[in-house]
Amino acid sequence: MPDPVISVKIGDLQMKNPVMTASGCYGYGEEYQDIVPLEAWGAVVVKGTTCAPREGNPPPRLVETPSGLINSVGLHNPGIETVIERELPRLGEKGVPVVVNLAGESEEEYIYLARRLEERAEVEAVELNISCPNVKKGGIAFGSDAVSAGKLVAKVRENFSRTLLVKLTPNVGNLPEIAGAVEKAGADALSLINTLRAMVIDIHAQKPVLPAGTGGLSGPAIKPVALRAVWEVTASVNVPVVGMGGIFTPEDAIEFILAGANAVAVGSAIFVNPRIPAEIVEGINSYMKQKGYENIGEMVGAARQ
Ligand SMILES: Cc1cc2nc3c(=O)[nH]c(=O)nc-3n(C[C@H](O)[C@H](O)[C@H](O)COP(=O)(O)O)c2cc1C
Questions:
Q1: Hey, is 261 helix, strand or coil?
Q2: What does the domain layout of the chain look like in residue ranges?
Q3: Cβ 39 vs Cβ 29: under 8 Å
Q4: Separation in Å, CA 268 to CA 158, 213, 224, 257
Q5: Confidence class of residue 16 from pLDDT cuts 50, 70 and 90?
């Protein structure tokens, strides 16, 4: 029996396998390159990038919980110009599609970022982060309201001709409504989910562990919430969905695909197992052979039928 087809197309983003990095968990790819080649991934989604460089929030920025990680990184990044000069030329040589995650404080900033990347051939897609829970201005304010989200996406759409993904927050009560508005405004795909707002208290200091108070929870604890989000959103939108949140094993990735995700992204698991993309690809391959699927598309949303 020939190997099943696991290549996936999201908008014009052609990936040899459906496993992407989740933004913020793989930097700009350099740190991990010697452990696991970039080429193992279907696409590399880089860190949240802003107009100006950002120092991020004061440390500690990460705290472990029994089944997840709370981060309050606050979009630490070198800014778009440095990313264009230093990171993109290196990333562009690897033969893996590059997706840049963008975060802005205003509509104008998102538009500026998208326009700067429109000029760069190395970038196949952008992912608009309108869901970061760790910054005070912008971002999640757009992602929490269907009208604002739709308006922002429509503006960016006018300024960016390649694949446009929009990353949504689960910290809302009307996710399908927001997803629908973003689809209608011209997004090519949705990324679900960003982290869930959470906190840990140090009982000795009698203070939150994170100086920012709260942060975003990721990892195994959020997988059921993420699956539910993918399930609900794919019931009402037609654009492809990239599912993420607590994917640590091939079985986790398969669950997301069966729930309706066309591709998956892995974040927190990279910190404990950088070799995870190859393992997930292998696991998906064997599952497809076992179930008699020839093309991964046949599996998408199979849990609904
Ligand atoms: C340390 C850290 C940094 C992150 N930074 C970003 C970011 O810059 N932009 C973004 O859209 N999501 C960011 N995220 C969210 C992840 O991309 C992902 O949506 C979330 O962690 C759920 O996936 P996981 O459970 O596999 O980690 C970050 C997550 C972590 C743990």
A1: coil
A2: 8-56+74-196+219-304
A3: no
A4: 33, 21, 15, 19
A5: very high
Which of 101, 194, 266 has the most ligand 1 atoms within 8 A of CB, as the residue to mutate?
A: 194
25 catalytic? Reply is: no
Please report the pLDDT score of residue 137 as a whole number: 62
Query: Which has the closest alpha carbon to 14: 253, 238, 262?
Result: 262
Integer Cα distance of 157 and 128 in angstroms: 11
Q: Annotated catalytic residue: which of 132, 179, 190, 241?
A: 132
Local structure of residue 295 (DSSP, 8 states): B
**CATH 3.20.20.70 is the classification of domain 8-56+74-196+219-304:** yes
pTM given for the model = 0.97
In total, the chain counts a number of residues equal to: 305
Look at residue 280 in the predicted model and tell me its pLDDT.
98
| Cα 141 to averaged position of ligand 1 atoms, centre (Å) | 17
How confident is the model over 135-185, as pLDDT tens digits? Answer: 766 677 788 999 999 999 999 999 999 999 999 999 999 999 999 999 999
Protein residues whose CB sits closer than 6 Å to any atom of ligand 1: 22-25, 47-48, 69, 71, 73, 75, 101, 129, 132, 167, 194-195, 218-219, 222, 244-247, 266-269
